[in-house]
Write a structure and sequence with these properties.
By secondary structure, this protein is α+β, with helices and mostly antiparallel strands. The protein is 44% helix and 11% strand. It has a two-stranded antiparallel ribbon with strand order 1-2. The N and C termini lie far apart (54 Å).
Length: 87
């Protein structure tokens, strides 16, 4: 910090001011409804949430394809995963 003739107190004061300005900008963006997306970026639409029992888990490892859902036996799935890990 001393290389640029800036005291430690000045450095931390300026850092605090930059943080405050960033927080104020984020608050303004939230009020306008633009959210937390930085300038120059695009907000993607939110993915539809899937509750337990509706979705499936699709696993593919080295040509092996496993499809699991809420009715899949967890012990069997654990055994299959251990076998795949050992390959």
């Amino acid at each position: 910090m001393r290389r640029k003739n800036i005291s430690k107190a000045t450095y931390y004061y300026r850092q605090k001011k930059v943080r405050e300005a960033a927080c104020m900008e984020l608050m303004e963006k939230q009020k306008r409804g633009t959210g937390l997306v930085p300038d120059g970026w695009t907000q993607l639409t939110e993915a539809k949430s899937v509750t337990a029992g509706e979705g499936t888990l699709d696993i593919e490892i080295a040509g092996c394809h496993i499809l699991a859902n809420a009715q899949t036996d967890l012990e069997l799935l654990a055994r299959v995963c251990r076998i795949l890990r050992s390959l």
